[in-house]
Amino acid sequence: MAAVYINNAATAWPKAPGIEKAVADTIAEIPFHPGRTGFEVADPEGDCRKRLADLLQIDDSSRVILTANATHALNIALHGFPWREGAVAVVTGAEHNAVLRPLYFLRKHRNLRIEPVEVDCAGRVNMEKWEAALKKYHPQLVAFTHASNVTGGINPVADMCKLAKEVGAATLLDASQTMGFTEVLPQKWLVDMVAFTGHKYLLGPPGTGGLYISPLIDLEPVWVGGTGILSELEEMPSDLPVRFDVGTSNSPAFAGLEQALIWQRENPAPTDEIEARLRQLAASLTELGARVIDWQGPHTPVLSFTLPGWDVEDVGEILFKSFDIVCRTGLHCAPLVHGYLGTSQQGTIRFSLSRFTTDEEVEYVLSAMRGIIE
């Protein structure tokens, strides 16, 4: 069998059909820059931004800032946020380092206080402790993942944001693991900022992502420089999205992301089939003696497990070198959650499926696991 790819929580593969042509066609065109030429030209960024606004069900596409990835988006949100002296940020114990490390930087340089809230064995926040933390610390901002990249467990965003708003906190959602797989509705859920990436379940090219900023939030730009318009100003313009559109954008990549968004809209994911394959993996691995992290409740197509007596990195290496299976092992850039899962020492083996994963590939993966264990 050809190589089996089950590492879609890191980067989706294969991508949406047609994005290679969209990228190549844009690269081949004469590089005109919308708003800077004096006449109408193609606008890959603007077209992509409108598609993303439709997906997020927001009214004003100018409030979608295009970025290189979710990490860039999170840094814009966290470093540009108007922190008060002695402010508190509340997070969950399932956060990715893309959220944690900017906050640790701010703790070191801006005296920010960070309070993580316990998560359960599926990686979801404990809602009683979430509410208690909000009432105790009255944070200026809460920042949390929509879904754990380790367990796949999806958090109840609307309930979490409602409680945050009751204590006056701004809300930042990391939707890296969910955009393109399940709904992300910032206006309905009272989310002030949403960071996301284009190369995971949106099936777009790497080097794409974005940040939605609600009208209630006023961020300072993290990067400043040329915008091609309003060049007489000493500071960045106040209007969105140009306030954050500094330098030359990756137009070909965003043309590819727009094509991925068009294709996804026309081809909804077969979620029931994906779920059936995920549950087959979970049940069969459990029968083989693996310790599978149970994600009962809403989840993404992610499955984490360990094998008693085995180092997770060894299993991943055998799967790749002996069976041509690509997965992910380790802490998955989310170190805190493993303390709650009992996997702090070495992390987990993670299988993450996509709409393109087949029944034959699932059977092949299970056959490989039987070969390792038995």
What does this structure look like?
It is a single chain. This protein is α/β, with parallel strands linked by helices. It folds into two domains: 4-14 and 269-373, Aspartate Aminotransferase, domain 1; 19-265, Type I PLP-dependent aspartate aminotransferase-like (Major domain) (Aspartate Aminotransferase, domain 2, 3-Layer(aba) Sandwich), CATH 3.40.640. It is 37% helix and 14% strand. It has twelve helices and 13 strands. It has helices at 19-28, 44-56, 70-80, 97-110, 127-137, 157-166, 186-189, 251-266, 271-287, 312-323, 337-341, 359-373, and strands at 4-5, 64-67, 88-92, 113-117, 141-145, 170-174, 193-197, 209-213, 291-292, 302-306, 325-326, 328-330, 348-352. It has a seven-stranded mixed beta sheet with strand order 2-8-7-6-5-3-4, with helices on both faces. A four-stranded antiparallel beta sheet has the order 9-10-13-12, with helices on one face. α6 links the parallel β5 (141-145) and β6. α2 packs parallel to α8, α9 packs parallel to α12 and α10 packs across α12. It is globular and about 70 Å long.
What tags apply to this protein structure?
single chain, 374 residues, alpha/beta, Aspartate Aminotransferase, domain 1, Aspartate Aminotransferase, domain 2, 2 domains, 7-stranded mixed sheet, 4-stranded antiparallel sheet, 12 helices, 13 strands, 37% helix, 14% strand, globular
